[in-house]
Amino acid sequence: MTAIQLTGVEKIYKGRVHALRGVDLTVHPGEVFGLLGPNGAGKSTLVKILMTVIRPTKCRGSVLGKPVGDRPTLARIGYLPEHHRFPPYLKGRQVLEFFAAMSGVARKDRQRRSAELLELVGMSDWSEKKIGGYSKGMRQRIGIAQSLMNNPDLVLLDEPTDGVDPVGRREIRQILAHLKEEGRAVFLNSHLLSEIEMVCDRVAIMVQGKVLRQGTIGELTQGVGGYSISTTTELTAEHHEVIRTAAGERETVYESTRVVIQTNDPGHIQTAIDALRAKGVVLSSVAPVRVSLEDLFMQTVEADESHGRPGAAQNRKGDRR
Ligand code: ADP
């Protein structure tokens, strides 16, 4: 059974804002899945559809084996909404006990369960302090703790590390790794590439309401790299010419003691190596290079923008985060 399986999800807000334009997406059980996209891409809209907060215009798919929109399934899902607000006058412990009550945890178990979760997210020492005095990272940790109250099989986290400092982000990553170890599927939204790269098993890149790429980071970044040839001496214009002839049509990037030839076939770089050696150049290394997730993301966004869909620009929020 897949954790999430979606086909052709569409959402048109108020009959005019086309926020989702046919999203296909699969999340496997026990994996950390990252949905990456610029602000306004439609990430929160998708999560809200999964949580039945808003209704899709069109949707085929399942969550934990049940059709999207099935309310009883929510009991098996944890949710951290974007920009959540807890009452500032409540203490961390009180917030969790409140969520325990809402999640149907028996009265006698609420204190124990809340204490366990505070421990898990490293907030035990702050449990008797008011939320109003917490940092953003602390509030997010309480938010993650409440999302786990119902012991969910699937956790949906909308921008869990947004506005959190580097130390807090690292702690949140450790919590996510722990959730995965416990066998839960984690689905997170983020516009922070580095976060996604560090924690996710698989990734989808969403741009203007469509998932343009999906797979493991390895899958997404392979096949678009090249080979780097490093030399001990500086490369001259003459060497560049030799490489250009050997590399043919392939795109080539020159640096003073390095050249990168874009190809996935090591056979293609042999002529360049031979030609350089024939010129007396000493090579210090030859290594494959992969495109980074950031490069891939930028290429995906730019390629989509260059299609210049009319009305696409107005369908985007300001950069408010
Ligand atoms: P993301 O989470 O990727 O930043 P959202 O899902 O919040 O993106 O938004 C996707 C698009 O839908 C944006 O253009 C946004 O302005 C629009 N949108 C979101 N919520 C509403 C709403 N309630 N009514 C109308 N448009 C909305």
What separation lies between the terminal Cα atoms?
Answer: 35 Å
Mean pLDDT: 88
| Percentage of residues in strands | 25-35%
Helix-strand pattern: EEEHEEEHHHEHEHEEHEHEEHEH
By DSSP, the count of extended strands is 14
Outline the biggest β-sheet.
6 strands, mixed
Helical run tally? 10
Q: Which structural class fits the helix and strand makeup?
A: alpha/beta
Helicity, as a percent range: 25-40%
What's this, in brief?
With 321 residues, the chain is an alpha/beta fold. Helices cover 34% and strands 26% of the residues. It has a six-stranded mixed sheet, with helices on both faces.
Pick out its properties.
26% strand, four-stranded antiparallel sheet, 321 residues, disordered C terminus, elongated, Rossmann fold, 34% helix, Alpha-Beta Plaits, alpha/beta
Explain the overall architecture.
The two termini are 35 Å apart. The strands form 3 sheets. Strands 6-7-8-3-9-10 form a 6-stranded mixed sheet, sandwiched between helices. The chain has a 4-stranded antiparallel sheet with strand order 2-1-4-5, covered by helices on one side. The protein is of the alpha/beta class and 321 residues long. Strand 7, helix 5 and strand 8 form a beta-alpha-beta unit. The protein contains 10 helices and 14 strands. Among the domains are: 142 residues, P-loop containing nucleotide triphosphate hydrolases (Rossmann fold), CATH 3.40.50.300; 67 residues, Alpha-Beta Plaits (2-Layer Sandwich). The structure holds adenosine-5'-diphosphate (ADP). The site of adenosine-5'-diphosphate has 15 residues, from strand 2 and helix 1.
